[in-house]
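Reply to dn_fold:

You asked what the input looked like. This is it:
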Amino acid sequence: MDTEDIVLTGKHVRLEPLEYRHVYGLAAAAEADPSLYTWSSVPQGDDAAISYVSTALAWRDAGNAMPFATVRVDDGTVIGSTRFWNLERWSWPPAHPRHGGSAPDACEIGYTWLARSAVRTGANTEAKLLMLTYAFEIWQVLRVCFHTDARNERSRAAISRIGGQYEGILRAHRIAADNTVRDSARYSILAAEWPALKQRLGNLADRD
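and this is what came back:
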């Protein structure tokens, strides 16, 4: 599955395939207000941003992720990052129409963060609209999942706002940004829910 040339563009943001040319923009976006990222692993400084991009590209090359730089359309400024990841390809029987396909059957959207200047703007809503549209209408996935630290009330509210359905808490799920073991709140959107949700997200993006 070729992921390198996919660019998703809206009125407010453009999601570009993440590359090393974005390193300094990522570092600048993150340093504006580090207090935003208590529960998120966000690169602080150029060296951390280089490592961040290297890891994301390794995941991409392994076929497990599609990482993006989030860029403001008006001036080309990098304002954050996001990615498709945990791309699931199911073992469909030979007679099934999805058998042998290269697109994922389900995925997650995560590793999402924004600079202070982009918080409470239309950037996050529009980015999710672009990604969900691609996932459900191009890949035709059956499910998109979201996970966040159970303590991250701001992120949980943002996922609920875009229509993520709360599924529960995954206990001792992974390492948290503060290097403790975190519980993760899990949310999902199903393909059957997407048509109505797309209209809602479009209205939210226009209003934000």
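The chain has a mean pLDDT of 94.
Hope that clears it up.
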